[in-house]
Amino acid sequence: MQAQQPSPTSNLQVHDLGLCDYQPVWDKMRDYTLNRTSTSLDQFWYLQHPPIYTLGLNGKHKHVLHTSNIPLISTDRGGQVTYHGPGQLIAYLLIDMHRKRLGIKNIVNAMEQAVIDYLHDLNIASERLTGAPGIYVANAKIAALGLRVKNGCTYHGLALNVDMDLWPFKNINPCGYENMPVTQIKDLIENNPDMTTIKSGLHRHLCQQLGYNTEIQ
pLDDT tens digits, residue range 162-182? Predict the structure, then answer.
């Protein structure tokens, strides 16, 4: 069977939202998805969140070991528990799957490959691990993924650890795996690029993998 190929289009809106609280952003991307029409543009939202733990739809509270003073919120993405904080680049992907002629596995694979390819640009060797969604460097998690599909459209997306306080990850079993080490770009290379540079590089690879040709304006 021939693999599905993304349909190239320039109909993509890109939003750079800065540092945003989790709940309002979740509400907005869910509302956008539920109210989309056939002419609604796909959107990529780039942002960072203040410190927060999020627990996916099938997430188990046993993987939350401690929360200290960091809020915990149950959300509607796939996956278990993860941590978001400043210095982590979030990319939320609001995609009409039917229009792009892509299934959920295609989109997840494209997201993963975009991260792998961008890290390769930084001379960081990364990989997938069987049965453990996300991207890993020497078995340490550097990027987490989680999507939700409603009415044939996706929301939520991926989180790439760039230059953040990794300590809060010690309070959870990241993505449901005990003693899972976590890493970030800052600790893997010298001359760490700034967040704007990383955002542009990741965006370029996401567009290549998903068939868009829009650059961040």
Answer: 999 999 998 877 766 677 899
What is the token pair recorded at 93? Answer: 């992907």
We report the CATH number of the domain holding residue 194 as 3.30.930.10
Q: Could you confirm whether 175 is annotated as catalytic?
A: yes
185: exposed, middle or buried (Cβ count in 10 Å: 0-12, 13-18, 19+)? buried
Tokens 């609604």 sit at which residue? Answer: 40
AA identity, residue 71:
P
- Specify the residue for token string 């509607």: 76
Low-confidence ranges of the chain (pLDDT < 50): 1-4, 6-8, 217
Nearest to 93 by CA among 126, 62, 121, 115: 115
Q: Which two tokens stand for residue 142?
A: 């550097």
Token pair listed for 172: 């959870």
Catalytic residue (choose from 20, 153, 175, 207):
175
**Residue 182 falls inside a structural domain:** yes
How many Å apart are CA 32 and CA 156, to the nearest integer? 12
Q: For residue 77, give the DSSP letter.
A: S
- The pTM of the full predicted model, rounded to 2 decimals, is 0.91
- The count of other CB atoms within 10 Å of the CB of residue 76 is 14
Structural domain includes residue 1: no
- The strand pair at 12-19 and 42-48 is best described as parallel
Distance CA 153, CA 9 (A): 16
